[in-house]
Description:
Fumarate Reductase Iron-sulfur Protein, Chain B, domain 2
Amino acid sequence: MVRNFPESLKKDLDHCSRCGLCEPLCPSYKVMRMERYAPRGRVQMVRKIFAGELSFTKSLQEAFTSCISCGTCSENCPSGVRIDRVFSHMRFDLVQKLGQPLFKKMMLWFLRHPSVLHAGAASARIGQSWLIKPFNVKKKIGPIEVSRLPRLNKTPFREHLQTRIPPRGKKIGRVLYFVGCATDLFNEDIGQAAIKVLTGLGYEVIISKELGCCGLPIFLSGALDNALNNISKNLNLMTEIECDHVMFDCGTCGGAFKEKIPQLLEELGPDFAPLQDKALALAAKSRDVSEIIALNLDRIDLSTTNRDQKPLIVTYHDSCHLKRAMHISKEPRAILTKLPSIQYSEMPSPDECCGGGGAYQFEHAALSSAITKRKIHNIRSVQADILAVGCPGCQLTLSAALSQPNDPVVKHPVQLYAELKQFS
């Protein structure tokens, strides 16, 4: 599509005072220690582009794709510059001018076509079973050894679910469960735990098998047109389903619907107003699974929890999109600290990025690995039994990196709720 850079975001650039407070918080700058890898430096590049002092080049594109889109800079900017949103639109323009690497084009094509994605996953699962595991293959994809990649589900998780799953006991509401790509293809154990907990609380769970990728990985990579195809299809389908909450087990998917998609449609202008109205209606209902459990915390009976067993030491990692786009941070901790069989221990800098960023860890493997190494040091410092992570993308990155015998097991918080509360 032909479009103009949003004027409101252009004006934001004038508010940057170059104070540099964003720099010590930026994951890429902490590693590289170069201005081009800092939010302040990238903002100045955008200014120079609009002033005609910089051209669109591959080097410039690398500077912006090396931003992991964690949102830390915007969250902490004293001048209120919406830095992450400025960079998203700059990536749109760079893709329009320079295109994308082949591997990214392929990845986005899969995300746009669920049936092809499922077929590819089936082929990959055969490779895992027949080649990687039997022959102990050590080859890496980006920074991750293929042997440490999660096992693919036998079939996509949504395929064997009913479209309506009744509550167990008295019904208190209806939840539309947006099953993201990671749970659908890799993490059916997370999906099973989420359904077990929700139905145990009294929610009817609605599953739509027609929904596709949320679109956030697509538009963060700069492929705006492709992202809008997914976004419009999902919004049109989801607004037709009556529910009290739209529930996510993935901070990335949840952050897309809670904040990122409404923001994007607003920035694209009045032509997208009807779609933005649908996005805002869904944003008001969008909840992380931990948030829904926290809403019912006073109703949860913990008497079935085994209080005699030795408490598990649990620490929690704040996934970037879950904390900064869904604004979920207190809720998982409120529940984890209430479970009597858990001893909660906060790690240093729990909201520091893990370095995954979806495709980022494969496109910028060395930089991603260095960011992850910092995170792993903080995790190990608390000597936890379990690391709770509310985003399957972060779970992939951290599970692969935590490979020592005494490292914690990585689990989604909802798995802990389901296991320790013993929902029946």
